[in-house]
Amino acid sequence: MAGVAELMGTTGVALAAEFHVPQIDEFLPPEIIFAGTPFAMNRIVMVRLIATAVMLLVFGITAARAKLIPGRWQGAVEWLIEFVQNNIVYEVMGELRGKRYVPMITTLFLTIMVFNLCGIIPFANMSANATFVMPLLFAVWTFVQYWRAAIREKGLLAYLKEELLPEGVPIPVYIILAPMQLIDIVLIRPASLAIRLFANMVAGHLIVALCFAATQFFLIESHNMMAGFGVLTLAGGFIMTLFEAFVAALQAFIFATLSCVYINLSYPEEA
Amino acid sequence: METQAVDGVKLFIPETYDIFWSAVVLVVVAVFFYKFFLPKFQAIFDERAAKIEGGIAKAEKAQADADAAKKKYEDQLNTARVDAAKIRDDARTEASHIIADARVKAEADAAQITANAQKSIESQQQQALVSLKGEVGALATALAGKILGSKLQDADVQTSMLDSMIEDIDKDSAGKAK
Question: Measured between beta carbons, which residues in chain A are less than 8 angstroms from residue B30?
Answer without folding.
Answer: 104, 107
